[in-house]
Design a protein that fits this description.
Elements (H helix, E strand, L loop, with lengths): L1 E6 L2 E6 L2 E2 L2 E2 L3 E6 L2 E3 L7 H8 L6 E3 L5 H4 L2 H8 L3 E3 L1 H8 L6 H6 L9 E2 L3 E4 L2 E7 L8 E5 L4 E5 L10 E2 L4 H13 L4 E4 L3 E3 L2 H24 L4 H9 L4 H5 L4 E2 H9 L19
Parallel strand pairs: 6-7, 7-8, 8-9, 13-15
Antiparallel strand pairs: 1-2, 2-5, 3-4, 5-6, 10-11, 11-12, 12-13, 14-17, 15-16
Helix pairs in contact: 6-7, 8-10
The protein binds fe (ii) ion.
The site of fe (ii) ion has 4 residues, from loops.
Length: about 280
Amino acid sequence: MLKIKQYGDVTEFKAAKTILGRPIYKTHFYYLGGLLIDTGPHHIADEILEALQNYPPEKVVITHQHEDHTGNCKRITEEFGAPIYARPEAAGVLANPPEIEIYRKIMWGNAPAVKTEPLDSYILAGGYRLEAIHTGGHSYDHTCYFEPQNRWLFAGDFYLGENLNGFMIGENIVEHLTGLKKLIALEPEIIFCGLKGRLTNAKERLVRKHNSWWHLCCEVKELYEAGKSSSKILSEVFGGEIFFYYFSQNNWGRCFMLDTILDNLDYFDGNKRTTHKGCSN
Ligand SMILES: [Fe+2]
């Protein structure tokens, strides 16, 4: 499945593999002024390459290394001659992709190996200049792109929503919170999200996410220091584990969010335990 929407100069592609006619996970990627921001999953490469004939990429930038965002880098380079720009943390992974879990192969497919060019602190897209903002969090290489004139934030998988769903193994809560603060300080108005598409009230959304996660972390800390076990906290605070934990071969779940909070308890003590200043906006 591939659906295309136009928001002024920004073209949004909503891509998903379908099973029995139903999309199983939607990944959004974007085109602006000859720049493609992410490339969609390899499972629907032919559909994406056909659509891009009307939006020929002159260059590609990626938000992070995950295969639903990088799955067509190689095909696009071959078809259009477009260079792929990526942070150094992602370059090695894209050049030599690791084995991925079965659920990822089913949902998105492997991303074929591709050579990348070093990403600068900004990238030009037609008449637009996008600042590259390294956030980490969702993955250690995660980078958002901010267009300051229109206050657009191309957020990849950094935002995803305000509610707790779970973490992939290895996600870092401190990177999430510091990344949210970085993005809030930019005062974005529109999020172009990798999961949810175009979203208004960007800053307010980021502030609410930061504050709700911050309070969740403080609650975990207090319970843990009061002697509650991690399994009790998982049950009482997080509502237990989610089914996707088992489907993902123990690779994605609420327990990984709890783990990274417990690994970083020092971050949540003393005078840091305050609501982010932007919360009232
Ligand atoms: Fe991702």
